[in-house]
Each structure stands twice: as structure tokens, then as C-alpha cells.
Amino acid sequence: MRKVPDGDAVVYFTASWCKPCRFFGPVLKAVARRAKITLVKVDIDRVDPSLISRRPWRVDVVPTVFAYRNRKIRRRLENAVIKKSLEGWFRETFPDKKKVED
Known about the structure:
By secondary structure, the protein is of the alpha+beta class. It has a single domain, classed as 3-Layer(aba) Sandwich (Glutaredoxin), CATH 3.40.30.10. Helix content is 31%, strand content 25%. Strands 2-1-3-4 form a four-stranded mixed β-sheet, with helices on one face. Helix 1 (19-34) links the parallel strand 1 (8-14) and strand 2 (38-43). Helix 1 crosses helix 3. The longest helix has 16 residues, at 19-34. The radius of gyration is 13 Å and the shape is globular. The mean pLDDT is 90.
């Protein structure tokens, strides 16, 4: 996995076999794009398992999303949520970002 970029970023842990991820992924991508936040997608089946089982992540469920600001974790979201809830999560996590909703 590449490094988490500077500034605001969201790291999205997913898997190709995860049905909720198939629906949640495109919504997450759209909301992150509108908010102008970098999205880093990590397929848990394509990385070293020790990466996702150790700190700071400890990913036990997919989808799992981590919000970063300047390479520090601000917040975590586990499981798929509806678009409106995701937009609210983004607003609370990145309050200085204006464009989150359609």
C-alpha cells in the first residue's frame, strides 16, 4: 500500500467479494470527489494480511474507512452506510470542506 497523502485523505478498506462494498464504494468515491478529498482504496485480499491486522488500522470488517488529516487518523467508519449518513460523516470529519452534498 502506498503512503497516506498529506492533507485530507480517506483510506477505504474493501474486498471484491464484499457485497455491501460494491454499493458503498461508488457512493464513497462520489462524496470524496465532491469534497475534494483524496481517496485511497485498499483491497484487503491484495495486501499483506499483517498490514490490516496491526495498528493503526486493525481492520476486522469491510468496508472500513479512515479519515486522515495531515497523515493522522481523525475518524473511523465501519460498515456501509447510506449516502445521507456518509455525507454527514464527511461534514463532521472535515467541517472546513464546503461541497459534500449534491
